[in-house]
Design goal:
343 residues, alpha/beta, 7-stranded parallel sheet, 5-stranded parallel sheet, 35% helix, binds nicotinamide-adenine-dinucleotide, binds 4-phospho-D-erythronate, NAD
Length: 343
């Protein structure tokens, strides 16, 4: 029997589905550390949550390993080249957690613009005074929101904030089709122009060598002093030191980060003393209801591997490193997961 190894703690709602769909068909093992993983190098399918899978770990996997499936979308913690060279497909849950991330993004925008943490601490202290906070509170309506990355998440954020009356611009190295821009009501801008003109800059691209520290001190200096930066993508896209300096110097209205370099930060980190910074613990991609969709999507891909078809094409992220695969689905050979226009 082929073996599914769950690496990391998968939420109960999703775990239940994984077990139900594996029952009688695959052996299932769960591991919570690399030490435990070393006992299951004979797995066929690996489901990875919150665990890095570098070249060293991939090298050790046995010859039966066929698929590493991320519980999520970002694949920066997996060495996709090392996996490809070993003939192992790396798949992501493409588009499956876009809605939760988009909703959290909007929540962070609203919480920052209205100073939610401060309002709550006033209420908890039994205080009625709020005029000073209101004097620093702003609507999304009428503001210019600049999205960096107009993929699955970026498009949902565009629709949501557009619906609230924001003017939406975006930058993406792969410009969307004119009909998509029209349908979403978004305007393309070069990155520099977007940074200079946005009231809210929201990041929705992958962490790649080319996007690491894309938002550095120079990029932050281009933003309006009244602007808000939101990062629900990956911490490494923003130079944290430069951002904290800009926030401390009140060079920006504020920032809201679901993702930050070296997360989770220690409780005594200076970031937590800034009153213009909201931090959430990388919670964007998971909600109880959506976790079921994540598990079902992964099991569909595993079943597709078993039947010889291969995972849904848009979910595969290391096609360029894979040799000739014995997969019969012709689509698999035409489309690549990194094709930006496939959603
Ligand atoms: N906070 C969370 O829990 C959470 C959850 C899911 C995804 N994410 C992160 O969000 C990212 C985006 O997810 P998605 O589902 O929208 O992915 P996606 O692949 O659908 O879209 C990413 C978009 O970014 C664009 N892009 C690539 N390089 C760029 C650059 N230099 N500048 C601007 N745009 C660029 C791509 O062309 C694409 O349109 C993921 O890679 C992941 O790291 C975070
Ligand atoms: O890339 C994603 O989809 C999410 O950022 C990632 O999956 C979140 O990490 P988790 O808490 O699910 O391990």
């Amino acid at each position: 029997m082929n073996k599914v190894v769950i690496v990391g703690r998968v939420p109960d709602a999703g775990r239940k589905i994984l077990y139900e769909r594996c029952a009688g068909r695959y052996d299932v093992a769960e591991v919570l550390s690399n030490k435990e993983l070393a006992k299951h190098l004979d797995g066929t399918y690996y489901i990875l949550r919150g665990f890095p899978m570098g070249a060293a770990e991939i090298e050790k996997l046995g010859g039966d390993a066929r698929l590493i499936h991320r519980w999520g979308v970002g694949f920066d913690a997996v060495d996709i080249e090392a996996a490809g060279k070993k003939g192992i497909i790396v798949s992501i849950c493409a588009g499956v957690n876009s809605q939760p991330v988009a909703e959290l993004t909007v929540m962070l925008m609203l919480a920052s613009l209205r100073h939610l943490p401060e309002l709550m601490s006033r209420a908890k202290a039994g205080r009625k005074d709020k005029e000073d906070i209101i004097a620093r509170s702003w609507l999304i309506s009428g503001k210019r929101v600049g999205l960096v990355g107009l993929g699955s998440i970026g498009r949902r954020v565009a629709a949501a904030v557009g619906g609230m009356g924001a003017e939406v611009t975006y930058y993406d190295p792969f410009r969307a089709a004119p009909e998509t821009e029209k349908e979403l009501g978004v305007e393309f801008l070069p990155l520099d122009e977007l940074l200079k003109s946005s009231d809210i800059v929201s990041l929705h691209m992958p962490l790649l060598d080319s996007t690491r520290h894309l938002i550095d001190a120079a990029a932050l200096a281009k933003m309006k002093p009244s602007a808000l930066l939101v990062n629900t993508a990956r911490g490494g896209i923003v130079d944290t030191e430069a951002l904290l300096k800009a926030l401390a110097g009140k060079c920006l209205f504020g920032a809201a980060l679901d993702t930050i370099e070296n997360e989770p930060l220690p409780a005594d980190h200076p970031a937590f003393s800034l009153d213009n910074l909201i931090i959430t613990p990388h919670a964007g991609g998971n909600t109880e209801d959506n976790n079921r969709n994540m598990a079902a999507y992964i099991m569909d891909n595993i079943d597709a591997m078993e039947s010889g078809r291969g995972p849904t094409p848009r979910s595969v992220v290391n096609r360029q490193f894979l040799g000739k695969q014995r997969i019969s689905d012709p689509l698999w050979n035409i489309r690549t997961a990194s094709d930006p226009q496939i959603f």
